[in-house]
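USER: Study each token:
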Amino acid sequence: MAHYRCYFLDGTGRITEFENIEAASDDDAVALARDRLAQHNAHTVELWQGRERLFKESRAIAWA
């Protein structure tokens, strides 16, 4: 299992929370990061392994 860190950012790009996760592969880690974004009150999630950012995704914003 590899170790990763999910950073949760607000709408201005500031880190509001982070979470350490373990996954068998980068693809599994991306799936976990997406799931975690759905569970957190954050605008964006970034997935890092060490000094390398592997993934970044933001929520879609619905404009009224």
Observations:
- The two ends are 43 Å apart (CA to CA).
- The mean pLDDT is 93.
- The first helix runs from residue 26 to 39.
- The chain has one domain: 2-58.
